[in-house]
């Protein structure tokens, strides 16, 4: 069997049904092989390799299975770098396959050569340059094993063209050779479980801090059972949204920089913080010394490198979260001492809800998202987002009930993530309503994937919150830079007004809507409409949802709106901005 066929057959053997791949000179044998296996694996051609990488993440984030993307050597491979780094920070199981120039010319600066293994060394969980076709079947087994065991992450497999074309007798059962990767089961010990149960029993003000690790370990139901048994309130990270229903009275929603006032207050004042599958990220903790400083901290995570890395824990436990919760559920009971605490959390929640000016006569971003959430509540809905204000408003105002229905570039914060991730989610979940809530800045970074959506019959819907600005940077300019505008306006600057412009409100050009997203979307074959009146929003969203195919709803919104609450970077909850 030739190397290209070995690789594709390996994908099939590992249950891969979908692949996002962009061809080039060094990967042509792989694409020829894909045509020979077209009845077993669907290959989708993105319009940019980065789009293919994020689409593969869309598969992984919504199914829990490995997402696979492929590119050629040189620029094709480097265009995958951001998607690989993104997967590393968010612990997403991803396999990125790249063609490489032939082995005799590696290192000679051959046409379309980059040392992609070296480029990606710090942003992959593991990486391979395959120089012998006889290693390929084993390498692919190892790649899937590494991507999915322990803390998930991306694996890069770089394959020179001559290895793709070479042939050998295939040993599909060759033993893996991973001397530095001993994935013994990481399970909490009985004594650790007893200690945690005892700490919970003694606590009077406990809070659960749940993150993406709960979803990665498929532990959402175990967490829900734990909360039902104990009655402990839960705050979620942006990666943890969906792990517990937002509408439940014990949900404190998202915590951190743009999290709810009540979740941040609860963490500030708790006496026991139960951290599950989290990494104490700076966007959650703010000033580390002040974060949960009154609390004993239980930290359960499968990755030992995360324990005591940012915040020392009193109970650091290396364990699969699902196992730990299942064992805890055998021991914990209803917490009898916490009723006043739960009441206090409920009072904070009532006093400080997520809010916006509901009397505003136009459409505010929060209103558009809340309306969309209400209209899709009874459907199987998956939401992806770009990065910026719209991302945080979606996290605040969309009501999630299930895990793997929310896709956000959280650790890396990659603009352009929304549309291609939604595209991958739609391919993997054909019966779901998949919506990209996006901003006009993020949307334009991978807008070309509208073509993929149209050509591949992927009916992704885009709720485009169009404010003509890089909204989150504008917000920081307003808060911390005295409102000085430094290249954050996305519309055309008239040359006679360009000198000394500080506030776009003073000039007519700010009211221009550029570009015309409706024309662009229709040019790609998609349905599209624009809306600016609140009275027309409901009908416009209904039309978008019911449209048979991909659709862009351009919602014209103001740029002056800020995402609140907001804890300044490096600050504490006591510095929280609410107005």
Please describe what this structure looks like.
With 579 residues, the protein is α/β, with parallel strands linked by helices. The protein has three domains: 163 residues, Rossmann fold, CATH 3.40.50.970; 162 residues, 3-Layer(aba) Sandwich (Rossmann fold), CATH 3.40.50.1220; 148 residues, Thiamin diphosphate (ThDP)-binding fold, Pyr/PP domains (Rossmann fold, 3-Layer(aba) Sandwich), CATH 3.40.50. It is built from 23 helices and 18 strands. It has a six-stranded parallel sheet, with helices on both faces. Helix 16 packs across helix 17 and helix 16 packs across helix 23. The protein starts with a helix and ends in a 23-residue tail after the last strand. About 2% of the residues have low confidence.
Q: What's a concise summary of this model?
A:
It contains 23 helices and 18 strands. By secondary structure, the protein is of the alpha/beta class.
Secondary structure: elements and pairs:
Blueprint: H1 3-13, E1 18-21, H2 28-36, E2 42-44, H3 49-63, E3 67-71, H4 75-78, H5 81-90, E4 94-100, H6 116-119, E5 126-129, H7 136-148, E6 154-160, H8 161-165, H9 190-202, E7 206-210, H10 212-216, H11 220-230, E8 234-236, E9 251-254, H12 261-269, E10 272-276, H13 282-285, E11 296-301, E12 315-318, H14 321-329, H15 339-351, H16 365-375, E13 381-385, H17 389-397, E14 406-407, H18 418-428, E15 433-439, H19 440-445, H20 449-455, E16 461-466, H21 471-480, H22 517-523, E17 527-531, H23 537-546, E18 551-556
Parallel strand pairs: 1-2, 1-3, 3-4, 4-6, 5-6, 7-8, 7-10, 8-9, 10-11, 11-12, 13-14, 13-15, 15-16, 16-18, 17-18
Helix pairs in contact: 1-2, 1-7, 3-5, 3-18, 11-14, 12-15, 16-17, 16-23
